[in-house]
């Protein structure tokens, strides 16, 4: 019994030493890192944004995507972290393929925007015609649409950063494209969560995008959105579609 008591005391002492010298300092270090890590990343984003080669490597592109995605894109409540991740992956993949070519980025942004417009119009019409019992049937499509809209907003920001001018196409001028996407993202919660969906009243964009390419972009994005990460083949198919003939 005495031996057992001594053994327990030794174990208790070892545990006490481990907690005092290893666990507690490590816990403090991890919590401190979690506090300062976002600040460090924001500094990296700001430093990368003024570099001439900011679209020259994947690491730099990821930072350039994280900037507008975290600062400007407001995801709706229906979105999950998966949609945020897909938007980031999609935007990074397109920018990496474009190699900093603003014309290609602009082409991709317009094609994605055309797909978002058509998708939103279709979903709004479909949802308005369905009974309340079909709300859950909307969620997968709405979440996929959210991801594409967020990707498009990032691409527009990248185009405007690289070209030094605002995206202007079809009936859009100035910041109208971004405003349209923000309206889409804001409407997505109503589209997914409300039993009685109010009409979608945003005017058409009249973009000069071939309807078949627009629909192929939507289908490719939906496949990528629904494929668990890393979804390399689905992501490549999406990038191939959205940049087809642009290079």
What does this structure look like?
The protein has helices at about 1-50, 60-70, 80-100, 100-130, 135-165, 175-195, 210-225, 230-240. It is mostly helical. The termini are far apart. The mean pLDDT is about 85.
Q: How are helices and strands ordered from N to C? A: HHHHHHHH
Low-confidence stretches: none
Report the C-alpha radius of gyration, rounded: 24 Å
Largest sheet: none
Mean pLDDT value:
86
Residue share in helices? over 70%
Question: What assembly state would you assign to the polypeptide chains in this entry?
Answer: single chain
Number of domains: 2
The total of beta strands comes to: 0
How far is the first residue's CA from the last residue's CA? 81 Å
Q: Please, how many helices?
A: 8
Range of strand content: under 5%
**SS-derived structural category:** mainly alpha
Shape summary: globular
Secondary structure: elements and pairs:
Blueprint: H1 2-49, H2 58-71, H3 81-98, H4 102-129, H5 135-163, H6 176-193, H7 211-226, H8 232-242
Helix pairs in contact: 1-2, 2-3, 2-5, 3-5, 3-8, 4-5, 4-6, 4-7, 5-6, 5-7, 7-8
